[in-house]
Amino acid sequence: MEIYWLLGIPLTGGIFLALWGCRKNAPEINALFSFLTLIAAALLTARIVEGGPMMVGAGWFFIDSFNVFLVALTALVAFTTSLFSRPYMRIEQEHGRLNAQRLRLYHSSYQIFIAAMLLALTTNNMGILWVAMEAATLATVLLVSLYRTPASLEAAWKYFILCGVGIALALFGTILLYFAAEKVLGSGGTALQWTQLNGVKAQLEPTVLSLAFVFLLVGYGTKVGLAPLHSWLPDAHAEGPTPVSAVLSGLLLNVALYAVMRSKVLVDGALGNNMAGNLMMGFGLLSVVLAAFLIKRQTDVKRMFAYSSIEHMGLITFAFGMGGAVANFAALLHMTMHSLTKSAIFFAVGHATQKAGTQLMADIRGLIQTNPTLGWGLMLGTVAILGVPPFGVFASEFLIITTAMHEHPWATPFLLLALGVAFASIFGKVQPMVFGETELPKLSYQPALTPVFLHLGLVLMLGLFIPPYLADWYRQAAQLLGG
Amino acid sequence: MTLTYHLQIVNLLAALLLLISFAMLSQRRIAGLITLFAWQGAALTASTALVAWSTGQHHLYYSAALTLVLKVIGMPWFFFRIVKKLDMDRDVEPMINIPTTMLIGIVLVIFSFNLALPISELSGTVMRSTLGIALACVLLAFLMMITRSKAIPQVIGFLAIENSLFFAATSATYGMPLVVELGVALDVMVGVFVMGIFFFQIRETFDSLDLKHMEKLKEK
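The joint structure predicted for all components is written out below.
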């Protein structure tokens, strides 16, 4: 039952805000719908923790510990982002960059985007998963171009075309998957159901499945932002409104990776070797190294953190590629940490850029003087994402690297080098933004900094102590992925 | 007996699809491109309906009807309207090297036949030999997207990929489950609609639909 609430609330919210989004209190309505979604997600999570995996709606939806953890994370970050976007969008409106019409589009698309992601996470059908991923892209294309500046239009166009082509490849992969499944399960609606496929995965034709996985990985990998298909990601993050950057980075990339992982489980079962894992390790490693060196050259703060997202998604993909209980556990943990930390950073960065009136790092100085909480939020977020203990990112990165040392020693120098380069460049660039001298003006609305510290608090807590039930939960999810 | 007869026609339509893909690759005028796209949809509709009829897979009729309504009538009409509104009926794209593009296209066709060979051997459907053609059409549409610099041809290239994928689904597996096909069709429709809005935004900002103006975002 909760599942219908979970999907129904944001969808209703999207329609409601499309019709009545011009009102003054639209940001509050947006936050309210997000909060209701969060409650539905919490209820669903409670149900799964109690009763284990379940199928709902005649096999259309399937929830296990792997996707329910992503559902909870998605609903949480969606809610906090809606809180952040409340003052943020008001300030943007005051600066004359947006009007009420565009805010209506923004709020409506935001809710539909959340609904599409939740559908992608909970559906049991690989075809519907594709449909939902495409819907999530379409919902965000017009958000990226919300400011209608030449640069934002270009970014949105690139986003649409690249992700559209990528997702077309994933459709071909899905067709191949169906082709293989049909041989075993017979034609009809059930042959694309993941649970059915998972039951017969050993009988699926290996040649077809390996080809299907290549297409699925490249297709969904485009949305994960894996190099060399990442070029839409920094543009879309830098040119879109900051709340959109936060949900793209913190949520959409995770959902795309989720799709890849669901496919990987099937392919591993059919092939009996680590072909899928090796491919993922290759793409992951390439992304980590490439992104780390590109971070060094960035001058735009949002672009820089977008590259940092590519780096972290690469790291997670690499860890999932290694497979095994520990690596999967670490990858899941890192997914959580990255989502929370990166969205917190984008919240802080958003207000900082509004204050300075530019996204160029060279022009943002001395945040800590004019607004100490904002400055500290950005500094702590940066320190957290760079993997400094005691934040949780350290724990997951440490696990990933030690596992890599154990199982694939050749990869460790690359990983350490990339992390080192990223550390030096990001820290070196953020430090003068936070400290240093300034004459920046104050913001007209009180910035929303509670979400920043809420996220960072969670990351800190998970770095110091992972509650046993949470650890169990991650372990179960890791097991489902073939640990 | 009748099945082989049908098979011949489906093969013929498949060949037609491939031919149209090549024609799209070399078509300079936007209006001509839209017409070709409509013809491609028509060939797809005909082949899907024929397969549905000869094999008794009734859900394929829905798929054929959907293609007819969306890709033969709806979208070409929509594109023609946009072209008219934005006043670019006579736009001719300066394209160099059509012969080279054609040669690359031929290489892609050979490549996709080789790639599809092991899969089509496994397929049990009557039209397995056409899977290679479907894959070739996908790659040709890709090539078209890469070689074009205007917005509408790129979107048509994207839709041609979608067409070819539907053809691949029909030829390899008698189509995807209906719900999925409906979902995909919905996405494509919304996508084209979003693009329509987008065209106007681009035009308003850049005063042209030439994507050459949109090459500012690059790594320095």
